[in-house]
Amino acid sequence: MIEIMKKYKIVRNRVFGAVAVITMALLLMSSSTSAASQSSARSVAMGGAYTSLATGVEAYRNNPANLGFDGNQRSGIEIVGFGANISNNSFSLDDYNNYTGAVLTSNDKEYLLDRVPDDGLDISADIEASAISLSFGSFAFSVSGIGQADVNLNKDIINLIFDGNTFGDTINVTGSYSDAIGYIAAGVSYGLPVYTLGTRQLTVGATAKYIRGLGMEQVVELEGLAATYETGFAGEGHVVARTATGGSGFALDVGAALQLSDDYTVGARIKNMLSTISWTSGTEEHGYLFSFDTMTVDNMDEDYVVSEDYSNDIPSFSTNLPAVMNVGVANTSGKLLWAVDWEQGFRRAAGASKKPRLAAGVEWAGLLRMFPLRAGFATGGSKTTAFSFGTGVHLGGFYVDIATVTGKSLSPSSSKGLNVALSTGINF
Fold first, then answer.
1. Whole-angstrom distance, CA of residue 109 vs CA of residue 111
2. Average pLDDT value for the chain
3. Distances (CA, A) of 384 to 199, 303, 425
4. Inter-residue contact 56 to 37 (CB < 8 Å)
5. SS3 of 121, please?
6. 352 closest CA partner among 27, 126, 65
7. Which pLDDT does position 24 carry in this prediction?
8. Predicted pLDDT at 315
9. What domain count does the chain have?
10. Span 70-93, mean pLDDT?
11. I need a labelling partner for 133 at 20 to 30 A (CA). Which of 73, 108, 285, 338 fits?
12. Beta strands in 198-347 (DSSP E)
C-alpha cells in the first residue's frame, strides 16, 4: 500500500505539473485590456499615456477634441496600424521557462499559486488593425478591425489544477467569467475650438462610429461547486452562454481639451459614451448542467453524473461596448515630451476594467529627430504592471513606428504575454 501511494503521488505531481505548464503556455501565447489604441505604436511605446498628445489620425482613437487645436490641424494618411496585446495577470515568461517539463514540488506549487490574485487568473486579448486612415484639418476618418476577449478563472480552479482535491475541499467556480467580441468600426471625428484667449484654447470633439459586429460570446450565467467527502464526491452546476455571428450598431466618443500654453495641454475623453450593437445573425444560447452525489472511484462509471447540454436559437438581442474615461496631461513641445494618463472603466468587460489604471510616457528626439526614442510605464486596471519601449524612423513626412511591452522589469522575460505594435504613414 505504501508503494502504491508513493507511485500515486509521483504520477499526480507529474500530471499536475504538465497541466500547469500547458496552462501557462496557453495564457502566455494565446488569448487585460486598455482603452488606449493598440494600433498606435507611439501610444503603446508611451504606456498608453496619449490622451493629450494624440494628433491627426491618432486623435480619432484617443481624443477627438485635439483636432480642434489650431496647431493640430494637419493632414496625413496612416497606411497601416496594427497592435496585439495578449496577456495574463499571473505568470511571466520566466515562470513558463522555469517550470516547463518540471515535476512540481510543493514549494513550486505554492509559489505559482501565490502568483494568482485572490480574484482569479485573468486572461485577456486586445487586437486592433487599421488601414488607410485619413486626417485633414479638424476631421479624421478611420476603419479598424477590433477583437477583444477577457476570461477569468476562479482561484479555486487554479488550486484544483495544482493540488487536486483533498477531503473536505469545496471547489467553487462562481466568479469565473468569459467575454469576447469582434467587430469592424468605421468612423469620423471632428474637433471644434469653443474658447480662445491668447495661447489658451478650449476645444471639444466627437467621434461617431458605425459598428459592424462579426461575432460575440458571453457567459451570462455560471454557477457550480464540487466537494470531496470520505463517502465520495458531490457537486452541481450550470453554465449558460449566448453567441452571435453578425450584427450592427453605433458608438459615440466625446472629448474635451484645454491648451494651457504652447507647452502644456490637458484633456479628457469618454470612449463609447453611447453605444449599442444589435445582434441579428446566428443568435444562440448554449447551456450545460450537471450534478452528481456520493460518486466514488468504484461507481464513477455508473450513472452517477446527471448532465444535460443544449443549444437553442434565440431572438435578436443587443449589447453595449464598455464606456471608458481617460484624463491626461502632457508637455507637447520641445525635444523631450511627456504625458500622464488616468484611465477608468465603468464596468468589467472585454476591453475595460472598473479598476483604475495609471500610465506615464516620455519621448525624446534630441540627437536625431528622425529616430525618436520612447518609453512608458503603466500599472493598475485588469492588466499587469509593465514597462514599454519604442522607436521609429521619420523621414520628411514618412514615418514607421514600432513598440513592445515587457513586465515589471526591463527584461523581456518578465512579460506576462505578448504586446507589440507597428504603424506607418505619411504626414503632409
1. 5
2. 84
3. 39, 45, 30
4. no
5. strand
6. 126
7. 42
8. 97
9. 1
10. 88
11. 338
12. 200-229, 232-244, 246-259, 264-281, 284-295, 305-313, 317-319, 324-331, 336-345
pLDDT digits (tens, 9 = 90+) for 224-262: 777 766 666 677 888 899 999 999 999 999 999 999 998
CATH number at 366 reads 2.40.160
Range of the domain at 267: 2-427
C-alpha cell at 253: 466618443
Q: Look up residue 80 and give its three cell numbers.
A: 497601416
Nearest CA-CA partner of 119 in 170, 155, 169: 155
Cβ within 8 Å of residue 300, ≥6 positions away:
none
Euclidean distance between CA atoms 122 and 331, whole angstroms: 34
Which residue(s) pair with 393 in the sheet?
Answer: 400
Distance CA 278, CA 247 (A): 5
Residue-wise pLDDT tens digits, 260-309: 998 999 999 999 999 999 999 999 999 988 776 655 545 545 555 667 88
- Asked whether residue 25 carries a pLDDT value surpassing 60, the answer given is no
Residue 32 identity: S
Produce one character per residue of 191-214: b if its CB has 16 or more CB atoms within 10 Å, e if not: bebeeeeeeebbbbbbbebebbbb
pLDDT at 158: 75
Q: Please give the Cα distance from 66 to 77 (Å, whole number).
A: 17
pLDDT of residue 164: 61
